[in-house]
Amino acid sequence: AALIVGAVLSATEPPADLGALVCDMEAGTIVASDPGVLENLKLCPALTGAQRDALNAVLLRGDTAYGDPASWDLQSLQNLGPLVLALNQTTLSLV
């Protein structure tokens, strides 16, 4: 199932609405996926350390709906919702 999810999310089109299925994705799959995967990660009750690292790697690329972390404001952080709790020091230092 994880391979199928990864294949769908790594396509060039926007990701399908996979809901909480992304909660079981490996970190490498998250990094390789369309940045829209972050919206589905908001549904996860908890992320592993590796998933949090992958989330930060995706955000640091700056090609998400949130843009470059250096340009974030309070609204950006609010839009991140529960993902804000997974931000690491590197990402937060750019805000």
From TrEMBL:
GO biological process per UniProt: cell-matrix adhesion
GO cellular component term of the entry, any: cell surface
A Pfam match: Mesothelin
InterPro entries according to UniProt: Mesothelin, Stereocilin-rel
Subcellular location: Membrane
Glycoprotein in keyword set: yes
Record keywords: Cell adhesion, Glycoprotein, Membrane, Signal
Entry similarity comment: Belongs to the mesothelin family.
Name this protein carries in UniProt: Mesothelin-like
Organism: Leptosomus discolor (Madagascar cuckoo roller)
